[in-house]
Amino acid sequence: MKTYSATPADIEKKWVVIDAEGVVLGRLASIIAMRLRGKHKPTFTPHMDMGDNVIVVNADKVQLTGRKRDKPNYWHTGYPGGIKSRTTGQILEGAHPERVVTQAVKRMLPGGKLSRQQMTHLRVFAGPEHNLEAQKPETLDVKVMNKKNTRSA
Question: From the CB of residue 129, how many other CB atoms can be counted at a distance below 10 Å?
């Protein structure tokens, strides 16, 4: 029996919309990363970009467990002494709360060219509206997959 390897002609990409309101960030990010890579498909091929396009809405209402909201995130500006930090809670309450979800998904994907290409198929919106209705996305309800996926404030 031969090992199956998908070709570009075999790949079918779907559009999926996920509502992140009340969903735990890590569990949400792992589900999104799996969808972006295409690991949920029986024809998964590791070296091909065969994942779905994912739209995430209500990213500003994502939940964090424990004291992760107070955990600092560090980055460096590139200048001497340019290390900066901001807590996850400050980022969620700031101007770009969707960056928390984007960064969590990015860190769940393996590094490399293929992962950077797969990240372009992720669209994250802070509010409940998105401008991709023309793609006719299917709704993926993460809350009903497992009761641990949600957390009440």
Answer: 9
In this structure, how many other beta carbons lie within 10 angstroms of the beta carbon of residue 62?
24
Q: Which of 10, 13, 9, 7 is nearest to 122 (CA)?
A: 13
**Residue 32 is encoded by which pair of tokens?**
């999104």
The reported pTM is 0.94
Beta bridge partners of 140: 18
The dihedrals phi and psi of 75, each to the nearest 5 degrees, come to -150, 165
Residue ranges in the chain modelled with pLDDT below 50: none
Entry field: residues in the chain: 153
81: number of Cβ within 10 Å: 6
Q: What angle do CA 129, 132, 138 make, to 5 degrees?
A: 90
Cα–Cα distance between 108 and 143 in angstroms, integer?
20
